[in-house]
Write a structure and sequence with these properties.
The structure holds three protein chains of three kinds. Chain A is mainly alpha-helical. Chain A has 21 helices and two strands. Chain A has a two-stranded antiparallel ribbon with strand order 1-2. In chain A, helix 4 packs antiparallel against helix 6. Chain A starts with a helix and ends with a helix. About 8% of the residues of chain A have low confidence. Chain B folds into two domains: 172 residues, P-loop containing nucleotide triphosphate hydrolases (Rossmann fold, 3-Layer(aba) Sandwich); 65 residues, no CATH class. In chain B, helix 3 crosses helix 4. By secondary structure, chain B is of the alpha/beta class. In chain B, the strands form two sheets. In chain B, strands 6-7-8-3-9-10 form a six-stranded mixed beta sheet, with helices on both faces. In chain B, strands 2-1-4-5 form a four-stranded antiparallel beta sheet, covered by helices on one side. Chain C folds into two domains: 73 residues, Orthogonal Bundle (Arc Repressor Mutant, subunit A), CATH 1.10.10.10; 71 residues, Arc Repressor Mutant, subunit A (Orthogonal Bundle). Chain C has eight helices and eight strands. Classes of the chains: A mainly alpha, B alpha/beta, C alpha+beta. At the A-B interface, helix 18 and helix 19 of A face loops of B.
């Protein structure tokens, strides 16, 4: 994990600074980061594993693959943070360095790195939890794939406890989970919080400290950076509503970014296939096979699409009122926040074996899938709603009281609209998370020699997982590509409009 | 800004001509933080009367905004009481209107909808009556034609007019204003000051007393019939000045400056 | 000095002037005897040049003042304006509709029933008028001008929900 983090930070610094300093780089890098941020990472994992393990068929390769995966889950977000931090540096400092003719390295060392530090630290806090999710998920996948022996790791431990006899070794499992929870909490306090506090001394602006002690507010700023296309955020910030020359630049950059992305994917896929010895011209599949596979992929995709949305709908229906109620009441807020924080740091995949145990759920794989996805994404929505309501000025919160408004009126006119922008960004992130969670949630098998512990009838996540386990690269490629295309297109079209409308009318800025 | 009561409002009942409209009696407020008790206001007492423009001032943090909110029924004092004529104020009431420094308009609603939000609790009025009141309030506040405009498209002065309209729609007897013009440019603020004063002395307007919190000593002397000066935290009344300068008041006259000096003395 | 023939000039309202400023300018000038020199006026109003000059331009365009060698005089219209107590801006309607963007806005609104500030801005840009080189900011300026002048003057109505102005 630490390696991945280290890698992420270095990468983020490099990319973020480059993007902040060069307009041309910016116009390509930002869309690229956007795309990478929205693709379902777990879907690409098999390729990464294939490529790297194929090249280094040993423990190092396997672990490296996992590290790279975690890296991909964390780095884009931190890169955005660096980019924004560097952009926010007051011109004076930049001028100072110009005047003193500092060398590039000095500039980086003495200005950019410190300036980005606090952003990095805060983004790390939450990226950590995300990374943990992928760590466990990827290890579980790796174990399932039967071709990649991953020896160390939490996910492996979970798998080992669970799979040895086809039944779950409860006692050890419970101990493990408890241990993980403790570890996560302790880690958060020992390392993450200290890291964040230490980085405070590098802060340039006068920001009230209290805001940052509040985990919900930190989460909010993280998710804000993580969610939808930065293009919209940037456009929104500068008050630009239509395309201007800046956006036109981004448009061109976007095209280039898509091209780069597709190219790198192809390379990766080819690398994976070649390394695993599957690529030989003679055995290229026939068109009809491709077509039928794609058809079943699309069908699975459609089913999963519905699944994602109904789970998100439930999370919204529960999360919004919960978030609003908790945020309005100070005592409740102080009580609930640490609890939420702890629960949200537990990576959902770890709990899978436990979920299956719950009697009702054990025989309802659809419910299992729904629960797993919910556990992964619920917090995105709740925290965002909470942060949105918390940023409301006190007088506004009092408004219903001043005018003796009834509760329905207060909710309809004040609380719900105030939560809206937060809800939108939260939902966007939640949907992204749901797609990733699908891959684990729809098909869960710990011991490749035993039948799956839980599987839904149809789903793209299931398709991908099975394809990975069987080494069926054709299905895998088609499934992953279809999924990615859907997600990225959705992001670029639907979300943009929704975000635009939400922020135009509903963001509170004086 | 003009005002007339809805269809010839009856004179306000139960008030002898010189009786107090708002009386603040030994009000104190403590702020509880963790285990500590921090006094914010201590033993504040004063009265306001019909046709009086009352200004409340004091150094930053002295609790004047908090005092206003206690008078508005939003905060419960730790000790003491506030009365509207002879009734205890324990929660917000229609007779006491409130206007905020930062306007506090709902950005996702038009001016008309913002004013209607203020009227929402009035189940005794029909929707048509509410609509008429809202339109009239906006007109009185100088915003005829702007009913369907969103706050984001309005200037600061116009936003504050919506805030005033929202308060006026309930036909309050007392108008509480918390530094209402401090975010506006001088000229807009000046125009609004005159209009608020006009509302007070206009016999067909329901407003009998205006109580305004301000930091601006010039504004204080320009408007006040009575100026209440609080000390630094914890806020106590250190002076109650009856400003008897004849109106219209000349801001450049020597008497004006003398009065301003009196306030400054009390502030330091 | 040769007298060049007066070229037809399109009147354009400066982007940052609001009716309140013009009102104050006329009132203060009137209060000082309907004639004042520019520096004194700036002083009385408490405005710096970046605010005063455009406001003066606007007041001149509207026929309320005239300036001569650094002195500012109220015209007859200006005097009448100063004395009007209710809804002064309505008086300016006839002058306003000759000034851009109001002229184009009214023209388009008469032809098409409603018009958005975006359409007005585009139409003006085609004829070479704009307040800012970035189209979005330009549109916002047009929107602000239309909202702040034409509603008070009473020749356009505005619906925030649709973003459309219509002829009153």
């Amino acid at each position: 994990m630490m390696l991945a983090l280290g890698l992420s930070i270095v990468f983020a610094l490099a990319v973020g600074i480059w993007a902040a300093r060069s307009k041309r780089a910016e116009s390509v890098i930002l869309p690229l980061l956007d795309i990478f941020q929205s693709i379902p990472i777990l879907g690409f994992f098999p390729f990464v594993i294939g490529a790297i393990y194929g090249a280094l068929p040993n423990a190092i390769g396997a672990n490296l693959a996992v590290i790279i995966l975690i890296f991909t889950s964390m780095s884009w977000n931190i890169a955005f943070g660096v980019y924004e931090a560097v952009r926010a540096i007051p011109q004076d400092y930049a001028d100072l360095l110009n005047v003193s003719q500092a060398s590039a390295w000095q500039r980086i060392k003495s200005l950019y790195i410190p300036a980005s530090m606090s952003r990095i630290a805060y983004n790390t806090q939450i990226s950590w939890a995300v990374g943990l999710f992928f760590l466990v998920a990827s290890e579980i996948i790796a174990v399932g794939s039967a071709t990649v022996p991953v020896y160390y790791g939490i996910g492996v431990a979970v798998a080992s406890f669970a799979g040895t006899s086809g039944a779950v070794d409860y006692a050890n499992y419970v101990l493990l989970v408890a241990g993980i929870i403790v570890a996560v909490v302790v880690w958060r306090f020992l390392f993450l919080r200290e890291f964040a506090l230490w980085s405070e001394k590098y802060k340039m602006m006068e920001e009230p400290r209290e805001v940052h002690q509040d985990p919900i507010m930190r989460f909010y700023s993280w998710v804000n950076h993580r969610s939808i296309s930065k293009l919209f955020l940037l456009a929104h910030d500068s008050g630009v509503t239509r395309f201007t020359s800046a956006i036109a630049r981004f448009r061109r950059g976007l095209q280039l970014a898509v091209a780069i992305f597709v190219l790198s994917f192809l390379l990766l896929a080819a690398g994976g296939l070649a390394a695993s010895g599957h690529l030989n011209v003679g055995s290229l599949p026939t068109l009809s096979v491709v077509a039928s596979t794609e058809a079943s992929a699309l069908y699975a995709l459609a089913v999963s699409f519905v699944r994602v949305w109904y789970v998100v709908a439930i999370c919204v229906a529960v999360g919004v009122p919960l978030g609003i109620v908790v945020s309005l009441n100070f005592k409740l807020y102080d009580l609930a926040t640490p609890i939420f924080e702890v629960i949200s740091s537990i990576p959902a995949p770890i709990l899978l074996p436990a979920i299956i145990l719950i009697p009702v759920l054990g025989h309802a794989p659809e419910a299992v899938a729904a629960v797993v996805i919910t556990l992964s994404i619920f917090w995105y929505i709740v925290f965002n709603v909470m942060a949105g309501v918390r940023t409301l000025p006190a007088d506004m919160k009092d408004l219903p009281k001043v005018f003796s408004a009834r509760r329905v009126s207060a909710w309809r006119n004040v609380y719900l609209p105030s939560a809206l922008t937060g809800l939108v960004t939260g939902t966007i992130t939640a949907v992204g998370g749901a797609w990733n969670a699908l891959i684990i949630a729809e098909y869960f098998q710990l011991d490749p020699t035993q039948p799956a512990l839980s599987q839904v009838p149809v789903g793209i996540g299931k398709m991908i997982t099975i394809a990975t386990n069987q080494g069926n690269y054709l299905t895998l490629t088609l499934a992953v590509v279809s999924m990615t295309v859907l997600i990225v297109t959705f992001n670029l079209t639907v979300w943009r409009r929704v975000y635009h409308h939400a922020t135009k009318r509903y963001s509170y800025n004086r | 800004m003009s005002a007339s009561g809805q269809g010839g409002a009856p004179p306000h009942s139960g008030v002898p001509v010189n009786g107090a409209t708002i009386s603040v009696e030994h009000v104190g407020l403590d702020y509880r933080k963790e285990k500590e008790k921090l006094p914010v206001l201590v033993d504040v007492s004063f009265e306001t009367h019909k046709n009086e423009f009352v200004m409340i001032t004091g150094p930053s943090g002295c609790g004047k905004s908090t005092l206003l909110r206690i008078m508005g029924g939003l905060i419960k004092p730790t000790s003491g009481i506030v009365k509207l004529r002879d009734q205890l104020i324990t929660k917000p009431r229609d007779e006491i209107g409130m206007v905020f420094q930062n306007f506090v308009l709902l950005p996702w609603r038009t001016s008309f909808e913002n004013v209607m939000f203020g009227l929402a609790s009035r189940s005794d009025l029909s929707p048509e009556e509410k609509k008429q009141r809202a339109l009239k309030a906006l007109d009185d506040a100088g915003l005829k034609g702007f009913e369907s405009v969103y706050p984001g498209e309005l200037s600061g002065g116009m936003k504050q007019r919506v805030g005033v309209a929202r308060a006026l729609a309930l036909e309050p007897h007392v108008l509480l204003m918390d530094e209402p013009f401090s975010s506006l440019d001088d000229l807009t603020a000046e125009r609004l000051r005159q209009e608020i004063y006009g509302l007070l002395i206009n016999p067909s307007s329901p407003i009998q007393t205006v109580i305004m919190v301000s930091h601006n000593v010039e504004e204080i002397i320009e408007l006040a019939d009575k100026a209440i000066v609080l000390s630094a935290r914890p806020g106590r009344v250190v002076g109650e000045l009856k400003v008897d300068l004849p109106r219209p008041r000349n801001k450049k006259s020597e008497e004006f400056f003398n009065w301003m000096d009196k306030v400054y003395v009390l502030l330091s | 000095m040769t007298n060049w023939p007066a070229l037809p000039r399109t009147l354009v309202m400066p982007g940052n002037v609001r009716s309140g400023q013009v009102i104050s300018l006329v009132e203060v000038t009137g209060g000082l005897g309907a004639k004042v020199d520019a520096p004194r006026l700036a002083d009385e109003l408490g405005w710096d040049i970046s605010v005063l000059l455009p406001a003066l331009d606007a007041a001149e365009m509207l026929g309320l003042v005239r300036s001569e060698k650094g002195d500012i005089f109220l015209t007859d219209l200006g005097l009448k304006f100063q004395k009007t107590s209710k809804n002064k801006v309505r008086m300016l309607k006839d002058m306003l509709v000759q000034i851009e963007p109001f002229r184009t806005a009214l023209e388009l609104a008469s032809k098409k029933k409603h018009v958005t500030s975006s359409e007005v801005a585009e139409s003006l840009e085609e004829r070479g008028f704009k307040w800012h080189y970035m189209p979005d900011i330009n549109e916002r300026i047009v929107n602000d001008l239309l909202i702040h002048w034409s509603i008070y003057a009473g020749f356009l109505g505005y619906n925030g929900k649709t973003g459309k102005f219509q002829k009153v």
